[in-house]
Batch of 4 targets.
Target 1
Amino acid sequence: MCGILGIVAQSPVNQLLYDGLLLLQHRGQDAAGIVTAERNSFHMHKAPGMVRDVFRTRNMRSLPGNMGIAHCRYPTAGSAFSSAEAQPFYVNSPFGIVLGHNGNLTNSEQLKDEMFRTDLRHINTGSDSEVLVNVLAHELEQASVKLRLEPQTIFTAVANVHRRVKGAYAVVAMIAGYGVLAFRDPFGIRPAVIGYNETEAGTEYMVASESVAVDALGFRLLRDIGPGEAVFIDEEGGFHSQQCTPHASLNPCIFEYVYLARPDSLIDGASVYETRLNMGEKLAEKIRRQYRHLEVDVVIPIPDSSRPSALQLAAGLGVPYREGFVKNRYIGRTFIMPGQAVRKRSVRQKLNPMAMEFAGKNVLLVDDSIVRGTTSREIVQ
């Protein structure tokens, strides 16, 4: 899980990209990076840490340009502690390309071998995102005519990326001197949306992991990027899109709706908040059907993302809804923390129970995100 962002605007984008990363911070807290383009030059700053810690005023001043991409990282491949694996990644041959990736490639080791033996490209880290940027660079080279790129050339390269790469991926990339490219895997596992903003100077476009970034930055939601689709926004603001795989089908990751995404986001046309309410209704139906013998005095959520489901569950069962835990908001999401020991310690610091809400009651706890069981185990103990 990571957050990706790309903007082609009529004015400097550094502040927009920074603000967008803050809105997507819940998607990754290990590293952050921004790259902007000014004519044919890239300006990059990235480092491990939260967005607010990575970027200072001096860093923002060094990111000029009206076009850029940004990324916040939760590592699913490679090292959680390596500054070299902060994104976006950069390659300079045959085109200057920077790329940020949300997802997980399942054939990255095979691709690494192909890159080295056949494509004559060296992968220097354990990140599958570095593999992906090199695959894209190679396919752009193969598809181009005399190393010139047109939108159709770029879409042909993306189609070839789809043929080679397996797994889940939502990608935003920037090609020096050309524009911003975004695409989703043929199954649409990871989300990506398009926003636009009409200005006197022309239309501005944004690509983001979630619609909340589009809304909060003053853009209007245009639509989702479809499974297997690629979108290219050139330097002049021209918008191009094409389906790049013949067998696309929408199979989104359900965990986006359950836990990962912000409740005020829309993903593939569905409200995350409404989805969580529906889950609570279905859970109430199941309890009434299969566990009618249970005597439930109160429903308590494990904050924060399970609250909508718990509210609807309590209403469906006709029992009180209560808050039984106080959350320390300065502790991040524990499942995306590196290392089990760190996760266990953080749970104790993150959630503190209010004894009066539990004493002498049959409590039904609602937890929407049992990944490793770390939080649940510590809560029950």
Note: The chain is about 30% helix and 25% strand.
Target 2
Amino acid sequence: MVTHPKTDEQRQRLQEACRDILLFKNLDPEQFSQVLDAMFEKSFEVGEHIIDQDDDGDNFYVIERGIFDICMRVDGIEKTVGAYDNRGSFGELALMYNTPRAATIIATSPGALWCLDRLTFRRIIVKNNALKRRLYEEFIESLPFLTSLELSERMKVVDVLSSKPFSNEEQIISQGDLADCFYIVESGQVRITMKRSRDEEVDIATCSRGQYFGELALVTNKPRAASAYAVGSVKCLVMDVQAFERLLGPCMDIMKRNIANYEEQLVTLFGNSTTDIEEKNL
């Protein structure tokens, strides 16, 4: 068992950095503690490459601080396709699926990362994900909007999902907020609302098991256009924005068609599209 000793201050910083990492959400307390024990801290300067596309994977990385560009070589041309800004994690795909690195990550500011070695990652995270796959395999295969994905790609979706419970009337997303997650209803019902004016909120849809919400802001890169509330006890599967973009690219056409349906619904309800409503509420 790999252990890197840490001061109380380091342990506290590490726990804070790992708090919202979806891959760690399904670990039990003992597994999570073993992961924290095995992680080690590394600093990077501007311009340093953390990983390079096509290399073998050695570590999984959790960002404590710093800005890191995501670069991909497409048809021989290197393009910056995104960035991590003082939060998030990367490097899991090569370790999970024994594939070369899918992108290059470059520090664009001084930064600090927590690293987890390949063997510990595979022993704890990959093993845990195999259990989760068995649990969610049937459910994920039944989702119509994932039909354009191969079975292996659908299983990758399972790997990056975490389950989150919500109590009756708890707000899941809030209109106007920046979007960082996508949700699939695992059980229960979710009420979707939109503000007709500053003081009036109108129900526009209800989502039940197998339906999804929260994708509109991720597809359009705009703030949340609606709010969502739990109706009774609800469990949702949650996927972060980076995984959404990386894994659900082939599903975008279906999602865009559904967004066109939203627009029709909204015109019927409000006489306006989402864009008009957003402008009116500014």
Note: The first helix runs from residue 8 to 18.
Target 3
Amino acid sequence: MIAGNLILHNVDLRVNSAETAAVLGPSGSGKSTLLRAIAGLIPADGSVQLDGEPIHDRPPHLRGVGMMFQNHALFPHLNVADNIAFGLRELGWDRVRSDRRVDELLEMAELSGFGTRSVDALSGGEAQRVALMRALAPQPKLIMLDEPLGSLDRRLRDELADELRRLLALTGTTALYVTHDQSEAAVVAERLVILDHGRIAADGQPEQLWSHPPTPELASFLGHRNVSPDYMVPADAVRAIPAEKGTAVVRSSRFVDGHWHLTIVMVRAAGEYGLTEFRSVGSSDIPAGSRVTLRFDTRRIHRF
């Protein structure tokens, strides 16, 4: 119960030491709410434990949890080094110890020599790395990242996803990573936790959930296009006869001996083999009303 509203329902989540677990789910599923409840930024019923020790009755700054948001919120009046050291000074670290920790983190982030720079002079990727180092500086037992790459373009997100995984592994930090991007989650994390309507709908390794999603709804959410209420067909398990490119909307079908016989209603050009919501693969040269057969690798079909 959060502020009188039931947003998270009996969420029982355990994250192993040094593990990165990505929290996925559609908008409104409770991803960011979960992080804020753990951090103590919003009131919530229930128990939060860190290393077996209850922390839910502590104020946020005494929970031993670090946070990083999409808006990295670096302090513009402080240089890079002072931004990273901010939390250390608040905790009472002396200057020598603090400077040593900042130098160590800058080297890890491949930002040596950036300490005296203004944060306004940083690129988007550099600013994100500085924000991460600031969150990691006090050596929290848990760091939580809420859509940290959401404001960046696709190329930079791909680069920084690899970098985040490297830095979290290098520091041995336990992490909860919220994102709406399934491919990003699979790069950064070794475990996926999928929320739906405030409940944990699935929990497992990325490869396991991708190849064997427990429900049609989760298969669609993870990006599979060839999903029915009964089974899912990976796009690379299908070949068209004739093997033309494009997608064709179908009116009727028969599935016999590993082949799917379809009547095409409409054809739309596309660049890859595969089905879209059980649309067949054809080409723009195939007219409406013609027939096409799809050959399936039946061993790859996943039944719900």
Note: The mean pLDDT is 81.
Target 4
Amino acid sequence: MFTAQGQKHMTLGDVSKCKASRYEIRGENGEWLKGAFCFLHIPGTNSCAVHILGRQTVQTFIMVRYTIRPFRPEDSPDIIKVALRSTYQYSKESLESWIKHDPEEIIVAVLDAGKIIGLCATVIHNEEVAFAGAFCVLEEYRHLDVGDKLYNRNFKHVEDRNLGLNCTADKVMIYKNRGFKVIEESWSILEYEYLGPLNTEVLSDILPAGIELKEFEDSYLEAIYAYDRMLVGYNRREIVKDNCKEPSTKTLVAFKRGICVGYGSVKINIFDAARVGPLYCNDQNVGEVMFKRLLEQMPNTKGLAMSTISNNLIANGCVKRMGIPLHDNLLRLYTKEKMYVNTSKIFAHFDVDFSPF
């Protein structure tokens, strides 16, 4: 993008000395300029000479320059400003927890002036699996190929791992052309994002016989680790611990005869809504009670953010009984092969932007 800058008139001889480039431009009042253009970069400057074909004058415009680099903790306020223009579910604390898990996972596009204009995440979960999400570029900068540069940088980060992501149906072909050839067809991700009062009275508070729900304590971590690994198939100890110990997070753990049979968390997201996830349990009726009690631990939140698996009927039924509309239906794509887990145990995703389940 360019903005009008000084030097309204140049000779065509001056232009002929410049290196040819291709750009889109706006005029002095921000309008898109129409017509046939010849774009030429002026060597040794950050300006571009624009010859409007058929005219004898040339205007120069300042080029927007930006850098692609890893996320830094001090970037959080600017990243949240970018994310608030979309409907991302994560919290500020979650961003910082995931960065600890993989310091190179979130990259940002930053103007020379310091403004963040885009971000993208690719989280390495283990030697075989990575997951991409949180992809966002401010609309006024999307014509600068920011998205392509973020994507290419992140794709290099994951190397040869099986990379998964979620996308809407209208973007499937875009990602298939970028290497995401494998589509999960047996389920999809249902995204609920709602601002308004929450009616938890419609949810059951009756636990099945023999089940105890306990508030998180450090002493429960080993039991949670074992349950989580059994469900997803690989070790996530550090990110599970960080999730449970984030200051604004409330976590409940389900036990049966002393063995962990589920756990769930709720936290405040960037919209000040209650973001539920992960919420895993062997018995979906336990999941409903846990869901109710988690929400009741966040009475002052302004709504709900939650992502479920489409074939978990109880989870989706709970949200519908609360009168919360579906925000989006996301498809799961992979670069190599599908991941298989028992989706009946997934009441809510861990984090739809950073984790496959």
Note: The longest helix spans residues 146-158.
